[in-house]
Specification:
The complex is a heterodimer of chains A (about 325) and B (about 300).
Chain A (H helix, E strand, L loop, with lengths): L6 H4 L6 H4 L18 H27 L6 H6 L9 H7 L2 H34 L2 H16 L2 H11 L6 H8 L14 H28 L4 H9 L4 H29 L3 H6 L11 H11 L3 H32 L1
Chain B lengths: L14 H10 L9 H29 L3 H4 L14 H8 L3 H32 L5 H11 L8 H10 L6 H25 L3 H9 L4 H12 L1 H17 L2 H6 L7 H8 L7 H33 L4
Classes of the chains: A mainly alpha (about 325), B mainly alpha (about 300).
Amino acid sequence: MSVVDSPATRRPRDPGGPQQNRVPGHAAPKRRKRDSGRTPWLLALPALLLIAGLLGYPLVRMVILSFQNMRLRELLSGRTPPWVGFDQYTRVLTDSVFWSVVGRTVAFTFVSVLVSVLFGLGIALLMRRVSRGVRLFMIVAMMFVWALPQLVAAQIFRWMTDSDFGVVNYLIDLLPGVSYQNHSWFVNPWQGWSVITTLVVWAGIPFLAITLNAGLTQVPKELLEAATVDGATAWQALRNITLPILKPLIMIVTTLSVIWNFGLFTQAWVLRDGHPEPQFQTLATYSYTQAFGQSRYSLGSAIAVITVILMLGVMIFYIRQMFRIGEVD
Amino acid sequence: MVAPAAGPAPASTAPLRRRRAKTDDGVITVGRSRSGTIAANTAGIVFGVIMLFPVYWVLNTAFKPADEVLALEPGFWPSNPTFDNFVSAFKAPLFLKDMLNGVIVTLLAVAGALVVGFLGALSIARFSFYGRKAIILVVLVVQLIPFLSLLIPLFLMLQSADLTNSLIGVSITYLVLILPYTVWTLRGFISGIPRELDEAAMIDGCTRAQVFWRIILPLTGPGLVATSVYGFIQAWNEFIIINTLNSPDKQNLMAWLLQNQTTRGTAWGPLMAGAIITSIPVVIFFLIIQRNIATGLTAGAVKG
């Protein structure tokens, strides 16, 4: 994608794209007159300076730091840390613990995104089928969940799964033949991760379901009704009409979910009391623990750099979509 | 429309069409059985109840006296409802101070982001110039960089500027955290204002600056409110940055909630009460702007 805006790169790309999306009534797309002068740059300058200073510079510094060896001694004395080349990366990449963290983070992201998107889509479809009152109830319920700060949501789950007084244990214990008294959910990593996944899915469904439901209202009902009259099953109508129309929106929400869930921090952090055991580390908590818990700032930076690189593919995909929207209007 | 329209119907639809859209809401009516509707309604209600249960459980706990909180058989209704937990949360060390800190930091960040972001948005939405694409790209890219990964250099940077353990340092950080979203969303609102209005005003003799002040700024009003409320929620909810940069007396309520859990066991009642107090502004604000939020999220792309 051409970043530099020049007449040469402006026209050929995406022929017919902008025209298609023009407001009816503007028959011929007027070519916008180019403003000369410094006004737009002056307007954008404060924002650019702040972004450069507090995002750009730290980003560069993070990369530099990952080639040094910054420990607590250098931090306190203020001396320039020694250069170590690729040592931090070699250390990280040859560490089996790191690879298990990567594997876990990827697996968690895959499962949680798959479950959330499928659930979100299912709930969105259900919202089209229920009566008005029930739909309103569903929306209100989801709004409250959505509004809760992540940290508070995680604290609630921590309380509900408490081994001694948690309501989850109590409820499961009521089932005949099951004893869950004083059951600790985080001894077994599979169970612990299922709690974390439940929390993430529960908190993620409102955004997914409500956005997808909004997308579903745009699917022409005439099409669906015609298909039904012609004898299409609900499944056929979904596969051949609804999903193709909804596809761009599904792509966007899935990408966003991947970006969010890949960076999982709060939920694992809170549910493990700020000291996640090795089997509950994600890339985000691992980098943080290495840097601020062990004072291995450079090692933490190297992990952060690798994390960003791993996410880049998904981010590029997302930015392309958004960039097109920004271009149109 | 390229952007997923989650809000009201596009402005171009006729009033008749809009009224129809309001009553039948795109729900198809052909080929649907009554038993199917009953099953769907049941499923919808079950789903809503399950979603709300954790929310209910925090309220239930917060109003229970201490002995009921730690009952081995959890009661599903506080038999002796009490405000004790809220009182002890307010009396807890640093609670009020951290609340005030949170308000200050959040307001500073939102105000700053709004001013800076509005100017930036204006430049992208209303001017066509060499480098516009580059600015759009920067705004889009930076909001996807996980801020957490920048925490290490940020910490070192603010430390050398003597801005760790200060509210100003955190405010500036939060400002930048919400800035890309602010620019992007305000851009959307500004582009929604017809250019014809600008041109008409200019023909009537307004200068470009006057057009901004008298036309664009007032018309972006609702957008400014929605954006600032969203920024408020983001900044208010943040805790990792402030928890890392500042000592306990310069925290916000989120970090307070986090630190409260480690001091010799957890006092669940007061913690849940504190969680409710912390969430109240967010929940209220969120419910106010919820109409814009789905649109804002998909079009503006924020970090969760």
